[in-house]
Amino acid sequence: MHTPDRYRLTFTHTGSGGEAATDEVVVERTTSLGPGGNPVYCDPTGILRAEISGAGQVRMLASGGYQAPLPPSAEPLP
Fold it and tell me: Three-class SS string for the chain?
């Protein structure tokens, strides 16, 4: 099975006017594995870290204190 090198993560949240808003960020695979044994992906800043399974399930990993990130949707990129 091919493991993608990059994913686009899309986060959906409530905007200032109460409507749904989205933010997107591209993450790249690292050499690390997450607690579930799947590859860990990271944004260029190193702050956003996610374990992504082969089925596209995302587990956000806290990179600092007081973080409670919600899981985004994930789209593999070429």
Answer: CCCCCEEEEEEEEECCCCCEEEEEEEEEEEEEECCCCCEEEECCCCCCEEEECCCCCEEEECCCCCCCCCCCEEEEEC
Name 45's bridge partners. none
The two tokens of residue 38 are: 């799947």
* Contact present, 4 and 26 (Cβ < 8 Å): no
pLDDT band at residue 17, thresholds of 50, 70 and 90? confident
pLDDT band (50, 70, 90) for residue 45: very high
